[in-house]
Protein: Glycosyl transferase family 1 domain-containing protein
Amino acid sequence: MKVLLINNFSIENNPGGVENYLLELTDYAQRSNTDITFKWFGKGNKKTHWFQKLHNREVTKEIIAEIDSFQPDLIHCFSIGAPITPHFMNYAKSKSIPVLQSFRDYYYICPKNYMLTDSGKIIERHENALECIFYHHPRRNIVFDSLLYLKQQYHKRIINKNICYFLSPSDNLTQFIRKHFNVPGRTLPNPVLLSNPSLETASDYLLYVGRLDREKGVLTLLKAFQNVVLRFPNEKLLIAGSGAEKDVLLNYVETNKIPNVRFLGAQNRDQLKKLYAKAKFTLVPSEFLESYGNVILESFAFHKTVIISSLLGLVDEVASNHCGLIFPYGDDTELAKKMELLLVDKTLRFELETNAYSYVQNKSFSNHFKELRAIYIQILKDNQPTVSINSSKSRM
Structure:
């Protein structure tokens, strides 16, 4: 079985969660000697002209050439929109190649992707263009927000017309997708991408792993730590990641003279393993509706509990399995209280760590791959070309 993976970016372009997943997927297939041959198409450059964001003809031609060369049985798409636009799907459908779309975030529900109104309420239904443009967070200006909405709607129609199945990592996102796309699909939870519990597990610091972008809530984390360090002056906060807000965050630390904060920059997989292993716990303060939260699973795999905001896709699982603490998103006072609680109550922290490690045991990549392979096989079975009775008779 030959599967063409299509994603906006390649692994060389400052990889995020999707790119790390695709790297593990392709590596696992090679290590496991499976019957699936993957080929990953992604671009190394984020820069595109404004007109290419609507229809990138050059990249579409490249993908069509890749389809003709690789001749996949199935195309599995992930994050697409720019620099890759979905027009190649028309060609794939004309060749009777089934297209599977994995939705990894809420962009194709709300193009602003935060799933919040400008008053901070979570969006439960998204059906009105004017509400999206004028009242959904974040707002830039009416021209930009209108063009963003029109672009998303244009691409959404192409995707809806051409895909035959969808996947999403969380039940909440799956329910939204079912309302907006007229195709079957299901939830396939993310697997653990990092795991090595045999590493040293001494607890030395508090840890944040992720992008340094406004929606990730790192400024709220710094404000909380600013209060925590007054009571616990020896505590350290390590921040692993890069992003557009780095200078703003560095300036906040310097201006407010917050001690014991280290910005480590982007970390590779081996470096992240060592960071998780020696953390006391991990902090995930996101301020937009995240579909899942890979950092949470990775922390659990290293026997570490988490403090997460109320906007994480795994919030219900964390609460019901009692494997972490939850605070109202954007509330640095409540976050500081949760941090202090875990620093003081080591019995609670041990209980959460134990539950966290138990929860993640069935989230292995091998289990995930078996489910994904079964989905591929079913899609191919359901989309086999059919021969009409009349055409069969004409050949007799």
Observations:
- Residues 137 and 225 are 26 Å apart (CA to CA).
- Residues 387-396 have pLDDT under 50 and may be disordered.
- The first strand starts at residue 2 and ends at 9.
